[in-house]
Amino acid sequence: MEAAWQEGLFFVFATVITVSAIGVVTARNVIHAALFLVATLIGAACIYILMFAEFVAWAQVLVYVGAIVVLMLFGLMLTRAPIGKYGEYDNDQKGLAAIVAAAVFGVTAWVLIDSFEGVELPTDRVAATTSKDVGEAIFSSYVLPFELVSVLLLAALVGAVVIARRDERVTSRTIDAARREKAREEDV
Amino acid sequence: MTQIRTPEDVAREVAEGGLATQQMILNVGPQHPATHGVFRLLATIDGEILAEAEPVIGYMHRGYEKLVEARDYRQITNLVSRMDWLSGFNNELPLAMALETLMEIEVPPRAQWLRVVMLEMNRILNHLMFFASFGAELGAITPTFYAFREREDIQLAMESATGGRMHFGFMRPGGLKEDVPRGFIAQALKSVRQVIARLDQYEDLLVGNEIFKQRTVDVGVLSREQVMSYGVSGPIARGSGVSDDVRKDEPYLVYDRFDFNVPIGHSGDCFDRFWVLVHEVVESARIVEQAIEGLPAGPVLGKVPRVIQAPEGEVYVRAENPLGELGYYLASDGDRRPYRLKIRTPSFNNVSVLPEVLRGTFVADMIAILGSFFFVLGDIDR
Amino acid sequence: MSVQERVSAEEAVERLRSTLGDDVGDVEVRFGHLDATCSAENLRHVMTTLRDEPGLRFEFFTFLSAIDRSEFGGPDKPDKHGGLELIVHLYSPAHVLHINVRVPLDLADPRCESISAIYRGANWHEREMRDMFGIQFEGHPNLTGIYLPEDFEGHPGLRSFKLPNRAFIKPWPGAKDPEEAAAGGR
Amino acid sequence: MPEFIQNFELTAWWILAIKLIVVLTVVPVGALAGGYALHKVMAHLQHRLGPMYAGGFHGWAQTLADGIKFVLKEDIIPEKADKPVFKYAPAIIFIPILLLYLVIPVDRRLIVQDLDVGLFYLLAVSSIPAIGILMAGWSSANKYALIGALRSAAQLIAYELPIVLSAATVAMLAGTLSVVGIVEAQDWPFLFWPPGIGLIAFIIFFAGSVAEMNLPPFDMPVAESEIITGAFTEYSGMRFIFGYFFAETAHMIAFSGLAVTFFLGGYRPIVPWEPLTVIPGIVWFMLKLFVMVFLYLWVRPTFPRLREDQLQKFAWKGLIPGSLGLILVAGAWILYAPEWLWH
């Protein structure tokens, strides 16, 4: 009974993910595309929940929806996000992109089916991995990849800071300090 | 240090291959909660920094300088109290003084002392109002209610004497409309003493607040040179360390008889302007106390001709309005109406310095600076 | 303190004469304030001197305005009628002095040099005068309307501009003074 | 009867549905009560009385009347707005706040679902409303709304971290991510034990939650004197209520609940004295909740508003290093503190 529920819901979420993923690439407006991306990510999180992988699901929401998409929207709105149907995001490499996407899909699907065919997913809470299992896995068998990823992220962070920090921007405070200096000189 | 980027700089940067950013034009006003009326600030913002800010005024222009050419002096005295609606009584004074100078009217002592009482009470009303609105602009709503509590007491005292709450219409060339009623003295004294007693609460609420200091110290610095060149006056000028106060420099009425200080700031930032404003409340309250204690007896209206008709002549008379120097340049050709009356309002000059002060500040600082410039729209637009 | 030395108006007249000489016309004292005339060409020079001369130091810009004297004294005294006059009022906080500088302008085509580079506060005042009297200030950075809409016709400050409802539509209702009222009113 | 329930196949789903319905009714009522409390607390802190007429006794029905007024108001959508985005933004803001209530344990058994990763869930869900605010601000086609939305996003990014890190400290000390587990793991005196760590974590959490809810002194995204109401400038009627007012009070109550759960011992009595356990946990929980809500309401009319850059500085230079340091201290405590100090 439970399994049937799960299966039905899986198809609902899968449809949501597919439709919104198509929305991401066909949207005429970058903000709409980003919002479709939110729907895609939340759909994926729902599928994780179906498999009782709660930790991954909420990590997905916290990191991707809560942080990355917010940051992305932030950047888009700060730079160029015209309201309404505006801008043409198609170009002549559309066909090539479609081929690459199809190829990636094919390869991933083939790899997944090849390696996981016949594996049963947990259908009830008891068999599911807990956060304790996840923690133990990360900090014992996968500790090296984990640390490597952290170093990579740190490097990216430092790089971002270096790029962002061009020269000191003038703020009211520096201007005011200069003005005060000038005023003081005049007083003397 | 790089310069603030003007729109041209941004265009050049983009042409040179920089990041394709755009400056945004933000219309602050004409309807905006921080502008105290129909005032518009055409701000060009670069992120949250103001690259340029140009005040646009005139939405409330009522053409007083033309209107008064078709009205006689008694009407004008009442008309001008509508300019700066927060300090009606102060608006009426320099005009009456100008007429008294031209017509050589002697103002009886009691009238002069009572005028001082009223003027200073009106100043307290005005300053408390700006105390209230400045707090509200920085997000602290509570001081508003504190200030209004005190305002109400003073307002009731003023109302008992004049019958008005904003536009008192109590001034007459040559004195006052009538003597104050019985009980006014006690009421006025009580209300101003309460202000002095409660000023500690104000200090605790805003002046001593760490966040308030963060928002105002070193923000929107106005230099002494700017004060002079723009003709900025009042608490704003004194916040920049300019000690000019007409009451001290050229005492009119009986101001030379009172013991009061002129609070002066040092750095000319928002905090100092606000500090001066708050401390002027105490000084005004002290003047009211002294004036009430020394109030002489006698008539309140001098020998005034039945028709007020200024002889030919030209005079500029100024007085210390709560917001700064208010002056009337009265040119009379001997008619019952002024030939030309130039109204020099403090807010007009004070606000004209805004583009210089606002350049390079944050949007949030813009609000603090606008609030600390204590302007009344009717006073700018006339 | 701003006040350094109080100078009497008479003494100030002497100082003004000695520094500016013939650049200013008549100098007199009216109600304690100095009153001087200068020509439109000399205005900038006079302003700079008034501001910078140590004995005068008229640093504080009070206001800039104008008077249209073409109806001064009413129709009864046409001998008093004059032209347009620009008034600049300055104050010297150091010496507690006031001065009115009057600049006669041509009523038909009022032009004058802008003093907004000397007193930056004059910027808005000059824009106001352009609205109200149509004075063209040469060298002003941004001489656009400040009070009136851009499509407004006429210059309300001039005497030739009549307030319509008062002058034409109905007689002035409020000029009744006690004596007139007793006599039946106007 | 119990056998019937045990034999009923969809038991778990039914109970979940009933619990959901309870939450769906309790939250709006709580938000209304919170709105009333806001009126009254602020009024009394400001020498006023607040609403006094609606409903008779001290204006108790004021928020209800306000609600009816807002329902009846016209729903105005600006012509240039991006209409679908504009319409759904309030829902994106409000629904996650509702979802927060699912894992707050009101009593040992009074919880909709005790998740294994409850704390993680809370943090994840509470980060979603930012997307709604960004949607609202951008789709309004209004510059003030856009600035408000951007400020709010920047603020969320800055303050999500301190909240997560201080909650992580709590989880470390408790040794679990389950919300009920955290409550059970806490000892008297809740806030101050282990020495000061809990208190500092609480202060960081409190500051972060004030910023996340856009309350003064961190209310720049909705600063009415600067950018009108930020992202909600163009909203009216029901959408305004759900996106802004309701969301604010519901958020405040939810975060009070979280603070009570994480730091104040949730549904447990305030002192470990046997007779006190007679009083049901829900009463303790509510008492602590009221204290927390009052704290949030107290902050609101007290402080002026900071500036956006000052807030960022406060977050990145103060709270985040502070909470990271706290995690180190907590880790050291867990590893090296002698056993007798723990209890």
Average pLDDT of chain D, rounded to a whole number, is: 80
Structural class of the helix and strand makeup of chain D? mainly alpha
Largest β-sheet summary of chain A: none
Order of helices and strands of chain D: HHHHHHHHHHHHHH
Q: What would your notes on this structure say?
A:
- The complex is a heterotetramer of chains A (188), B (382), C (186) and D (343).
- Chain A has 188 residues and is mainly α.
- Chain A contains seven helices and no strands.
- Helix content of chain C is 24%, strand content 25%.
- Chain C has five helices and seven strands, in the order αββαββββαβαα.
- Chain C has helices at 9-20, 43-52, 122-133, 164-169, 178-182; strands at 24-30, 33-38, 60-68, 84-92, 97-105, 111-113, 136-138.
- In chain C, α3 (122-133) links the parallel β6 (111-113) and β7 (136-138).
- The mean pLDDT of chain C is 79.
- Chain D has one domain (7-342).
- Chain D is 67% helix and 0% strand.
- Chain D contains 14 helices and no strands.
- The N and C termini of chain D lie far apart (42 Å).
- In chain D, 52% of the residues are buried.
- Classes of the chains: A mainly alpha (188), B alpha+beta (382), C alpha/beta (186), D mainly alpha (343).
- Chains in contact: A-B, A-D, B-C, B-D.
Concise synopsis of the structure shown:
The complex is a heterotetramer of chains A (188), B (382), C (186) and D (343). Chain C has helices at residues 9-20, 43-52, 122-133, 164-169, 178-182, and strands spanning 24-30, 33-38, 60-68, 84-92, 97-105, 111-113, 136-138. Chain C is built from five helices and seven strands.
Name its key features:
heterotetramer, A: 188 residues, mainly alpha, 75% helix, globular, B: 382 residues, alpha+beta, Cytochrome-c3 Hydrogenase, chain B, 2 domains, 3-stranded antiparallel β-sheet, 16 helices, 48% helix
Task: Indicate the topology.
The complex is a heterotetramer of chains A (188), B (382), C (186) and D (343).
Chain A lengths: L1 H25 L3 H21 L3 H25 L15 H23 L14 H9 L3 H22 L7 H16 L1
Chain B lengths: L6 H9 L8 E5 L11 E7 L2 E8 L7 H4 L5 H8 L7 H16 L5 H29 L4 H21 L8 E2 L2 E2 L7 H24 L2 H7 L7 H7 L4 H5 L6 H4 L20 H24 L19 E9 L2 E9 L7 E5 L1 H7 L1 H5 L4 H10 L4 H5 L1
Antiparallel strand pairs in B: 1-2, 2-3, 4-5, 6-7, 7-8
Chain C lengths: L8 H12 L3 E7 L2 E6 L4 H10 L7 E9 L15 E9 L4 E9 L5 E3 L8 H12 L2 E3 L25 H6 L8 H5 L4
Parallel strand pairs in C: 2-5, 6-7
Antiparallel strand pairs in C: 1-2, 3-4, 4-5
